[in-house]
């Protein structure tokens, strides 16, 4: 077959693959290449497809250079063919594994894993998408101890948790199985492996200690410290071939590496005061501060990291001429003083994967700078000049020797001239190199002095912040039930450290910049306390929210609108007896929470350095809350007095809580908190039925406290840079048209005024009403500075997009400016926001567009009423998710929902002395309007497990 691959056609190879000949299609040649290797290397996709369709093929075989067949080609068709075949094989094999485990068919399972391809590709730790359980969970639940041992020996993770957060030992019923699992956990915690090489700790092929890829392999989610602004964020980590890499999410692990550390040059540190914390410290400034959900997870990672580092060290001692390490693969000069020279032999693992990872690391992460003082002894100025002088002296000696050669051994004139010219050119090149080195030395000296001056400024800012933070901590310790973010407003002098690096990239390592440990810890405590509190508040929430409802929302029976309308003219909507069929399965408090769907806009606003740009992004957030009202003509369930609702999104880093504080008139109060902002909102709905339409006027003001990661106002207030900015804005009126006949339409109209009370800047955004000849859903407005100068103009549609143009840049040109109303989404080249026009007018920017959705209900709205089983113990009885009428309605039980709703509506009213539990009435210091201020007691009691018991 090997010969036929290179010289014969398709029909001949197909004939040779006939099962009657019983040829071994995985037989390697003298170079370790199988027929599949040769077909991929020869770029023959038809032959590769033919081989992959054979049930006996093993595409995971390695040749003598450690390459698989997929690594031998750059042909996209061949790569796609192999990957698709692998996916189908893994899917089919996983189904068989699950079936054999359920049937306790131990013999069939063992026979299945005799296949080398199965051992290399199929992960025994694959979780069921519905229950989150693994094969080890199922075996433990069925009580088969032999099967449990067999799975553990082949890499089954004894620390894997299902959707309920349970370990295999938690679901085991047999005492023998529990004993086996307990012993396995003890051995792993002690740093021992379970007898066989596992996919969780060691890749297969343990027979050869120098085999390519023979390193511990581990992947999973850890919390990584990003910077002082965002704190910890979840990232996907992969330990493979002695390199620890991290990615923003598991889905980006194929093509978007955010950073990597070679463990050969790294050390591991475990926090003795916090068993869920550990650091991976690489050379230079490379440092990953990591946190796991529990101590067992830390032990598992530290064990794998230590074992991987040990394997790398053993490889250096035993085989100095082995294949180059990942340091060469990652674009780092392997001839640096800290690394012995290695040969040019092939690297381990997948060439295609490693090169892709290397390119992303080199462009996205700066952790591979090996020029720090820890790694290299930089020469002094005297040593540098001595080296330059010795180069010239050596050149002079060679020139003198050549002159001596000319005298003693005469050569022809042409050769002598050529040699002398060559020496002159060498002298010229040496002088040029020295000149360039001197210029670079001068450049870096200037840059160093500039950085030192800037560091002095930062140090002073940090010292001022330390004093403020000490005051904050003393107040916080004395008032544990007080809102942490509210305490910030009482600190007299507030300053903000400049953000270092992008939000999604590496944090600035202040320790290497000369800052004291006390200053760093004091600054970290502020954001870490809040980040940890928000993370604790997410207990019980799923890692991924649902994407579909249990039944289609609008598959409900029709109802005659006229029977409702004829006696309800000019009545308040809350006093009308609406049929249950006209509702949607959400409480008004949950509908109120939809304003946080585009919360990332506030994070973007906090990252802007210019105050008018921050106001612009806050305006976009205020407008985005109306994007979900399109075609939403159904009525949410009326909230009950004292009803509450909480929502925590750990990916976006915020927690939200609301309460119905009054029913006459109906007033809802909410509070949302993140590291970057704090949002207070009140909502009082006043609605009138007009026959053909319904007018809904939403009264109440939104109050935003935006925390600035940089001293953005330092230019105008150099002595006191502000730490937070205060914003407020009103709401506009919503009108629902054509209730009796015609297509139902939702219209938002009115003026929304957004004010920055800190800088006295304002934004006017007009929601234009429908006209016969005009466009629908149009918004337009402008941002004005404190001196009433217009800095930005805006145009868009509240249900589609918004574009803006900076007036300063557009007025500098003498050309006629195209109105913003003439731009459409198709004019912008990118689907991402923000983006600019690359051709017509670069000053025009698309700042926001609505996320695409397949139905009227977006995935965010579907998550609002989701009730995972693990969340129920954390919720109070007053939470909207626990209302039976809404739950019945979502499940399609309309009659039960109607009866339950009537029962709730007929409950007796509370006494006159009733007061909201989580909010208190207060006055805003800027607008002097009434606000309902959050006490923060809710999250305090929830995080301490006292919430449900006290409701």
TrEMBL record:
Matches recorded under InterPro entries: Ankyrin_rpt, Ankyrin_rpt-contain_sf, OSBP_sf, Oxysterol-bd, PH-like_dom_sf, PH_domain
Spans of repeat ANK: 31-53, 131-163
GO BP: endocytosis; exocytosis; intermembrane lipid transfer; maintenance of cell polarity; piecemeal microautophagy of the nucleus
GO molecular function: sterol binding
Gene3D superfamilies in the cross-refs: 2.40.160.120, Ankyrin repeat-containing domain (1.25.40.20), Pleckstrin-homology domain (PH domain)/Phosphotyrosine-binding domain (PTB) (2.30.29.30)
Biased composition (Low complexity): 334-350, 359-371
Highest taxon of the lineage: Eukaryota
Keywords from the UniProt entry: ANK repeat, Lipid transport, Lipid-binding, Phosphoprotein, Transport
Span list, region Disordered: 312-375
Record field: compositional bias (Basic and acidic residues): 312-331
Family that this chain belongs to: Belongs to the OSBP family.
Protein name, UniProt field: PH domain-containing protein
Source organism (scientific name): Basidiobolus meristosporus CBS 931.73
């Amino acid at each position: 077959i090997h010969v036929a691959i290179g010289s014969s056609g398709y029909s001949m190879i197909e004939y040779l693959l006939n099962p009657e000949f019983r040829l071994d299609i995985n037989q390697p040649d003298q170079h370790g290449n199988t027929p599949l290797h040769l077909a991929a290397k020869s770029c023959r996709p038809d032959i590769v497809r033919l081989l992959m369709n054979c049930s006996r093929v093993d595409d995971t075989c390695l040749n003598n250079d450690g390459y698989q067949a997929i690594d031998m080609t750059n042909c996209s068709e061949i790569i796609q063919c192999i990957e698709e075949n692998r996916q189908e094989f893994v899917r089919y094999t996983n189904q068989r594994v699950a079936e054999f485990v359920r049937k306790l068919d131990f013999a069939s399972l063992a026979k299945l894993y005799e296949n080398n391809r199965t051992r290399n590709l199929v992960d025994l730790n694959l979780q069921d998408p519905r229950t989150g359980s693994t094969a080890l969970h199922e075996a433990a639940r069925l009580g088969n101890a032999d099967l449990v041992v067999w799975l553990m020996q082949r890499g089954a993770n004894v620390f894997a948790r299902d959707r309920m957060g349970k370990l295999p030992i938690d679901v085991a019923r047999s005492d023998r199985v529990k004993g086996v699992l307990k012993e396995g956990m003890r051995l792993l915690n002690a740093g021992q492996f379970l007898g066989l090489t596992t996919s969780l700790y060691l890749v297969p092929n343990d027979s050869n200690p120098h085999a390519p890829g023979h390193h511990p392999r581990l992947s999973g989610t850890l919390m990584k410290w990003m910077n002082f602004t965002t704190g910890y964020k979840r990232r996907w980590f992969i330990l493979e071939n002695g390199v620890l890499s991290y990615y923003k999410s598991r889905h980006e692990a194929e093509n978007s590496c955010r950073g990597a550390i070679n463990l050969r040059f790294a050390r591991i540190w475990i926090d003795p005061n916090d068993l869920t914390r550990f650091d991976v410290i690489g050379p230079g400034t490379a440092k990953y501060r990591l946190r796991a959900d529990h101590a067992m997870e830390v032990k598992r990672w530290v064990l794998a990291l230590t074992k991987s580092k040990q394997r790398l060290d053993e490889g250096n001692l035993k085989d100095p001429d082995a294949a180059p390490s990942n340091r060469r693969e990652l674009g780092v000069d392997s001839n640096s003083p800290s690394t012995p020279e290695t040969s040019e032999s092939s690297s381990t693992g997948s060439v295609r994967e490693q090169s892709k990872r290397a390119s992303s690391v080199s462009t996205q992460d700066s952790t591979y700078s090996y020029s720090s003082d820890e790694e290299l002894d930089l020469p002094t100025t005297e040593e540098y000049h001595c080296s330059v002088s010795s180069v010239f002296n050596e050149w002079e000696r060679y020139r003198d020797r050549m002159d001596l050669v000319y005298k003693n051994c005469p050569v022809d004139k042409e050769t002598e001239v050529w040699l002398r010219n060559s020496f002159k050119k060498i002298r010229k090149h040496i002088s040029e190199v020295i000149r360039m080195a001197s210029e670079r030395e001068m450049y870096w000296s200037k840059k160093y002095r500039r950085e030192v001056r800037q560091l002095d400024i930062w140090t002073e800012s940090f010292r001022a912040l330390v004093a403020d933070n000490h005051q904050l901590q003393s107040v916080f310790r004395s008032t544990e039930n007080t809102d942490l973010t509210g305490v910030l407003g009482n600190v007299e002098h507030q300053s903000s450290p400049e953000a270092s690096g992008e939000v999604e990239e590496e944090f600035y390592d202040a320790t290497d910049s000369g800052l004291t440990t006390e200053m760093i810890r004091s600054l970290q405590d502020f954001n870490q306390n809040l980040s940890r509190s928000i993370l604790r508040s997410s207990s019980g929430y799923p890692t991924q929210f649902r994407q579909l409802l249990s039944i289609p929302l609008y598959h409900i029976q029709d109802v005659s609108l006229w029977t409702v309308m004829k006696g309800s003219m000019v009545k308040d909507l809350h006093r009308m007896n609406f049929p249950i069929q006209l509702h949607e399965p959400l409480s008004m408090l949950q509908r109120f929470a939809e304003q946080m769907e585009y919360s990332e806009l506030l994070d973007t606003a906090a990252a802007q350095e210019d105050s008018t740009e921050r106001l612009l992004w806050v305006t976009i957030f205020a407008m985005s809350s109306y994007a979900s009202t399109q075609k939403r003509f159904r009525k949410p369930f009326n909230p009950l007095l004292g009803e509450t609702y909480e929502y925590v999104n750990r990916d976006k880093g915020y927690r939200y809580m609301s309460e119905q504080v009054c029913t006459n008139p109906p007033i809802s109060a909410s509070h949302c908190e993140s590291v970057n902002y704090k949002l207070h909102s009140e909502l009082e709905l006043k609605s009138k039925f007009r026959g053909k339409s319904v007018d809904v006027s939403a009264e109440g003001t939104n109050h935003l406290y935006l925390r600035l990661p940089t001293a953005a106002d330092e230019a105008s207030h150099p002595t006191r840079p502000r730490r937070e900015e205060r914003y407020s804005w009103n709401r506009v009126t919503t009108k629902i048209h054509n209730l009796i006949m015609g297509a139902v339409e939702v219209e938002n109209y009115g003026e929304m005024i957004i004010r920055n009370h800190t800088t006295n800047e304002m934004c006017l955004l007009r929601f234009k009403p429908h006209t016969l000849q005009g466009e629908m859903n149009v918004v337009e407005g402008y941002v004005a500075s404190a001196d009433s100068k217009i800095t930005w103009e805006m145009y868009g549609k509240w249900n589609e997009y918004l574009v803006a143009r900076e007036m300063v840049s557009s007025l500098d040109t003498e050309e006629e400016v195209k109105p913003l109303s003439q731009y459409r989404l198709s004019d912008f080249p990118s689907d991402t926001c923000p983006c600019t026009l690359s051709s017509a007018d670069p000053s025009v920017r698309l700042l926001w567009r609505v996320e695409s959705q397949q139905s009227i209900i977006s995935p965010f709205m579907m998550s609002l009423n989701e009730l995972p089983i693990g969340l129920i113990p954390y919720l109070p009885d007053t939470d909207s998710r626990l209302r039976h009428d809404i739950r019945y309605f979502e499940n399609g039980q309309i009659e039960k929902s109607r009866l339950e709703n009537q029962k709730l509506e007929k409950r007796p009213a509370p006494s006159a002395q009733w007061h909201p539990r989580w909010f208190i009435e207060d006055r805003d210091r800027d607008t002097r309007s009434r606000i309902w201020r959050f006490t923060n007691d809710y999250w305090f009691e929830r995080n301490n497990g006292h919430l449900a018991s006290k409701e």
